[in-house]
Write a structure and sequence with these properties.
Layout (H helix, E strand, L loop, with lengths): L1 E5 L3 H12 L3 E5 L3 H8 L10 H10 L3 E4 L2 H6 L3 E4 L5 E2 L2 E2 L2 H14 L6 E5 L7 H14 L6 E5 L9 H6 L4 E5 L2 H7 L11 E4 L1 H32 L4 H9 L7 E2 L2 E2 L19 H14 L5 H25 L6 E5 L14 H11 L3 E5 L4 H7 L6 E4 L2 H5 L4 E4 L4 H4 L3 H7 L4 E4 L6 H6 L3 E4 L5
Parallel strand pairs: 1-2, 1-4, 2-3, 4-7, 7-8, 9-10, 13-14, 13-16, 14-15, 16-17, 17-18
Antiparallel strand pairs: 5-6, 8-9, 11-12
Bound molecules: uridine-5'-diphosphate-glucuronic acid.
Keywords: NAD, Oxidoreductase
Organism: Lutispora saccharofermentans
Enzyme class: oxidoreductase
């Protein structure tokens, strides 16, 4: 099929590259010439594992084209996917970019004879596609449903693993406004992907996306609450608790009698709390949508509340362990909101850094990919140094806080903490290190959900 994609952020670009890789002809539309030039050269404008090599491949084979010419792209394709941003402003998502893109596509469809399906891929609150997008499309095109189609097709792509998630989906949700839209749109996925296609209406599709992210965030906050109770009680290892909970076959199904061990703790693991551009924004948006339509969502509010307590709890523990923060130098290991990305949006690490600066600590920060973005985020903060080598960040410090579980960080041998730090003490906020091993090396270990 020929497919246009509006928006070349990590969702739009990954979708475009993967669909091109699967044999479709894709037009990636963006207004910024810098982005078009970069894509056309086969160089991804965003950091995402595997994307560069796949982009280079599909550009070379002429399967993907970047363009600013939306009109030509829509005219030459059967489907247009809208994957523009929905910034969180004033307690809810702003639909400015969506509305603009929908209007522009609608106006182009006015002059198009062939049937064309418009797809909303951006995350939008339930009712957006049928009550906002559809009327704009009708008005801009002067046409009725049936002359064009409309679907809501949410994405489930994790930053850093987006390509793999796209190529190996757990499920494909198609929220179709009518049968014809579904029949045409499903051809994008049918025969190309080994996953169930779930046909629903647009509102249900929108809700599936929010419910998925909300459940995952709920698991994280739940684990962190169990960790907090365990810390206060003492002598409990909340990681062992949640690992054991996760091994219940209702969470971790057995495949031919074998437990799928590594995933048993995913999202059921104590840690520094969730961040990023999705979980905090999506849950807050669902809360405000829910309140607006007359339901007070108590669980969702608590999920956010527990998450917002996490940085404060880390700071409190640190103050207790280090006695005085203001005359200490602390290494921050990991600045991105999670591993394998340079994204620092809503990063718990950045929030902790701000609190520690306020408390008067000197900080030495390290991240394998996010240093430049973190510098921008922390512009104007004094007493902060950034390093591209963790050894330099560790040198002469009184404590190291592990905030992002990059492999290069979790692989740091305990001998190096001993070698470089003034006083080898590590606060494991990702529960990624072996506390018994730390003890063997004489490294003081503090972990979320783990107190002697
Ligand atoms: C999330 C969802 O996982 C995707 O399915 C969804 O498509 C995406 O949002 C989106 O809405 O676009 P993402 O934000 O990239 O993806 O990251 P996750 O890997 O899910 O992590 C989110 C946050 O939770 C991170 O801060 C991460 O460190 C934290 N997390 C994750 C934990 O604290 N513990 C865990 O066990 C897992």
């Amino acid at each position: 099929m020929n497919i246009s994609i509006i928006g070349t952020g990590y969702v739009g670009l990954v979708t475009g590259v993967c669909l091109a890789y699967k044999g479709h002809k894709v037009f990636c539309v963006d207004k910024q010439q810098r982005i078009i030039d970069s894509i056309s050269r086969g160089v991804s404008p965003i950091y995402e594992q595997q994307l560069d090599s796949m982009l280079a491949h599909v550009i070379k084979n002429d399967e993907l084209k970047a363009t600013a010419d939306l009109s030509q792209a829509v005219m030459d394709s059967e489907i247009t996917i809208i994957a523009v941003g929905t910034p969180y402003i004033g307690g809810q998502i702003a639909l400015t970019y969506i509305k603009k893109a929908v209007y522009e596509v609608g106006a182009i469809l006015k002059n198009k004879k062939d049937y064309h399906v418009v797809c909303i891929k951006s995350t939008v609150v339930p009712t957006t596609t049928d009550t906002i997008v559809l009327p704009i499309l009708k008005q801009a095109s002067g046409k009725e449903l049936g002359d064009f189609g409309l679907v809501m097709n949410p994405e489930f792509l994790k930053e850093g693993e987006a390509v793999q998630d796209f190529l190996n989906p757990d499920r494909i949700i198609i929220g179709a406004i009518d049968e014809k839209s579904y029949e045409v749109f499903k051809n994008i996925y049918q025969y190309h992907f080994d996953a169930p296609i779930i046909k629903v209406n647009p509102r249900t599709a929108e809700m599936i996306k929010y419910a998925s992210n909300s459940l995952l965030a709920t698991l994280i906050s739940f684990s962190n609450e169990i960790a907090a109770i365990s810390e206060e009680a003492g002598g409990i290892d909340a990681l062992k608790v949640m690992e054991s909970v996760g091994l219940d076959k209702r969470f971790t199904p057995k495949v031919r009698g074998e437990l799928i061990k590594p995933d048993a703790t995913k999202y059921l693991k104590p840690g520094r709390g969730f961040g990023g551009s999705c979980f905090p924004k999506d849950i807050k948006s669902l809360i405000s949508f829910s309140v607006k339509i007359g339901y007070d969502p108590k669980i969702l509010k608590s999920v956010i509340a527990v998450n917002e307590l996490q940085v404060g709890r880390i700071l409190c523990t640190l103050k207790k362990e280090l006695l005085r923060i203001e005359d200490k130098t602390i290494a921050i290991l990991g600045l991105a909101f999670k591993a394998n990305t340079d994204d620092v949006r809503e990063s718990q690490s950045i929030k902790l850094i701000k609190e520690l600066m306020e408390a008067g600590a000197k900080l030495k920060c390290y991240d394998p990919a996010a240093v430049e973005k973190a510098k921008k985020e922390l512009l104007g903060c004094d007493g902060l140094e950034f390093f591209n080598d963790y050894r330099e960040a560790l040198a002469g410090t009184d404590a190291a806080i592990l905030m992002t579980d990059w492999k290069i960080i979790t692989d740091i041998p305990f001998s190096e903490y001993v070698k470089f730090m003034k006083a080898p003490a590590v606060f494991d906020c990702c529960r990624a290190l072996d506390h018994d091993k730390a003890k063997l090396f004489g490294v003081k270990y503090i972990g979320i959900g783990f107190r002697k």
